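Something for you to look into today, if you have time. What I am after is a single protein written out in full by you. I want to see for myself how the chain folds. Could you add the entry underneath, on a fresh line?
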Amino acid sequence: MKTKHAAVITTHVNARATTGGKLRPDSGTAAFIKMQKRPVYLAISGRTMEFDEKAVCVAGCN
């Protein structure tokens, strides 16, 4: 049975997905995000994100 998630939080362990806390457009993570049909949030070290019950990010999303 497939699970449908309302949103995705990406991680990029050992990958150069970000520079200065910004997504690198040439990264595999950027390609993954472009393929998604649901909201995708990029995990950044030291940043805390908060979500409501519908998986909408309400704080720390920028």
About this structure: Residues 8-59 form one domain. Strands lie at 8-10, 18-19, 22-23, 40-42, 50-51, 57-59. The helical segments are 28-35.
